[in-house]
Design goal:
By secondary structure, the chain is of the alpha+beta class. The chain has two domains: about 30 residues, no CATH class; about 140 residues, Coagulation Factor XIII, subunit A, domain 1 (Coagulation Factor XIII, Chain A, domain 1). It has five helices and ten strands, in the order αααββαββββββαββ. This is Rho GDP-dissociation inhibitor.
Length: about 200
């Protein structure tokens, strides 16, 4: 169970004027604005057609992997964790990723929508060092329906630059990641760690 102050770290930012709409079923979305041909084609490409809804079973959204990508990464090197694997997550906590200081990198997440339509899905992460919050990221994934071919979606977040300097390189950064929707439903919540180094390791 999370401590109350940790939950405050994950309070989503509110966009002025934005109001969360009421949840709808796939069939309701399929018949919405049915006279708009281009919208109907787009919805059909996502598998949103009348009568296409299937009985809900299992989690609506499954987060598969989280990856750190950078044009400066050596060829063939991957910093990727399997969010579905407890062993993979434990490994990243025990042996943190090493990110090269002062380089551009981005977070990349792969996920599947198993049924229905999820609205306003976002990725959030809080980074702490020695128990003190040093960074918070909040990135919108968007709204998705189950892929008609059962395939996963991949989202690349905005690039950022890793800190540099001796102080930044000291210590381990502990990260808590979470994927939530507009209704506050948590689809994934996990911990991992990274360090900064003079080079990728």
């Amino acid at each position: 169970m999370s401590a109350p102050h940790e939950e405050d770290d994950f309070a989503p930012s509110n966009t002025p004027g934005y109001k969360v709409g009421a949840a709808k079923t796939v069939d309701e979305y399929a018949t919405l604005d049915a006279e708009d041909e281009s919208l109907a084609r787009w919805k059909a490409s996502l598998g949103i057609v009348p009568g296409a809804s299937t009985p809900a079973s299992g989690p609506q959204v499954s987060v598969l992997t989280l990856e750190l990508a950078s044009p400066t990464l050596p060829s063939g090197k991957h910093l990727r964790m399997d969010v579905q694997s407890p062993a993979s997550l434990e490994e990243v906590k025990k042996n943190p990723f090493v990110i090269k200081e002062g380089v551009e990198y981005n977070v990349r997440i792969t996920f599947k929508v198993n049924h229905g339509i999820c609205s306003g899905v976002r990725y959030m992460q809080v980074v702490k060092r020695a128990g003190v919050k040093v960074d918070k990221m909040e990135q919108m994934l968007g709204s998705y329906g189950a892929h008609p071919k059962g395939e996963a979606y991949t989202k690349n977040f905005d690039p950022e630059e890793s800190p540099s300097g001796m102080l930044a390189r000291s210590g381990t950064y502990h990260v808590r990641s979470r994927v939530v929707d507009d209704d506050g439903k948590v689809y994934a919540d996990w911990d991992w760690s990274f360090k900064l180094g003079k080079d990728w390791a």
